[in-house]
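For the sake of clarity, the format in which proteins appear in this thesis is described at this point. Each number in the token line that follows is a code from a learned vocabulary of backbone shapes. One such record is shown here in full, so that the layout can be seen directly:
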Amino acid sequence: MVINFEQVHNYYERLVFEEVVRRSASRTDLTSDMLADMCCVALNRLPARYVRHDVDMMFYLTEHERHAIELAMDEALDFAFSFVTERAAKRGVPIDSTD
């Protein structure tokens, strides 16, 4: 029997990656290492929700659950951006705090 686990992933990964890219589009002061750190910080603040297909999860969520996911992601991403930029500033990395 051949078992393929390549489809299994954390539902939040793609969403967080896309949102970090969107939020950082106008932020030339952020390095690729900082963006990766922001993704890690945000993902660590969200529950693990492993799926094979994103569409399957969205189909079974209620409107209330979808809204809760959006709020949790916003909170996790806000925290991650603040956390990483504050640490970078403490290390002397010049940071433009405009979003």
